[in-house]
TrEMBL record:
Species classification: Eukaryota, Metazoa, Ecdysozoa, Arthropoda, Hexapoda
Domain Endonuclease/exonuclease/phosphatase: from-to ranges: 80-193
Entry annotated with the keyword Acyltransferase: no
InterPro entries documented for this protein: Endo/exonu/phosph_ase_sf, Endo/exonuclease/phosphatase
Superkingdom of this protein's organism: Eukaryota
Keywords per UniProt: Nucleotidyltransferase, RNA-directed DNA polymerase, Transferase
A matching Pfam family: Exo_endo_phos_2
A GO term for molecular function: RNA-directed DNA polymerase activity
Official protein name in the record: RNA-directed DNA polymerase from mobile element jockey
Source organism (scientific name): Eumeta variegata (Bagworm moth)
Amino acid sequence: MFLNMNKIDIALISETRFTSKSFLSVKGYTTYNTNHPSGNAHGGTAVLIKCNIKHHSLEPFATDKIQATLIKVSGKSSDITIAAVYCPPKHQILREDYRHFFSQLGHRYIIGGDWNAKHLFWGSRLVTTRGRQLYQAVKELNLECLSTGEPTYWPTDPRKTPDLLDFFITKNIIINNTSVESDLDLTSDHSAVILNVNDKIILNEAPPRLYNKKTNWEEYRDIITEETQLTVSLKTVEEVEQAIEDINKLIHSAANRSTPQGKAGRAKEHVYPTFIRDSVTERRRLRREWQNNHYARDKTAFNKASQQLKALTKNGQ
């Protein structure tokens, strides 16, 4: 639902906590994931990309300090590496670690995820040691940081202060062609960050088909009936092969003539009923109230709205 309502082409997911036994499938998307190198259910990342976008997967990056899932999207001017990243908070990550990771991504890339690093440069409220190391690597490599400037991490402990941990780092992406926005639809303690990029990519061509929903099967049968030659000689191998070739040509010709030609229309976008969209709006309002006040009653109201929305979408499928 989140992917459809926000028209997400590529989703970057941090801290999937997958193992070799985990499996994620979303209709209309191809999924790639990178698990923690220990194989245990913590850390890890995943990328979901629409099936009609031309791309290929790259070798995943998996260390105790940094996990990243990498794909390369085919662009009309040049390809773009897209990476979902997660940096567990317990490790010390130095400037050299970040530089080594960035060196694996090519000359043009977008990396997004939970860096667990704070710095005023990308909008956090303070600077941590890890944030200072990442900032140095970013400046030395002339990279760009894209964020909303708003908190993305909302701790459940009221004694902790929300802060910005999730953002994008890019190289050779025209900043004027991008915009970043927050989204509060998900139930995680991290809010989603949406990066809009105005760039030309290559879509996969739809495989050719003999027929479609508009094929006139009555016309097809009439063509086959009228034009099939039944009085042909089948005495030699050459005559049999020629007869097979002729019938194949007739089948293709009949299908082509009985099927309206033209550009394939774009797939219809799923439109949710008004009551579901209203429920989403109310849930967003309640989540913002809870994030601002941290009152127990606001948390209860938010959880109740989340359960109601879940039930509505389940019944609507």
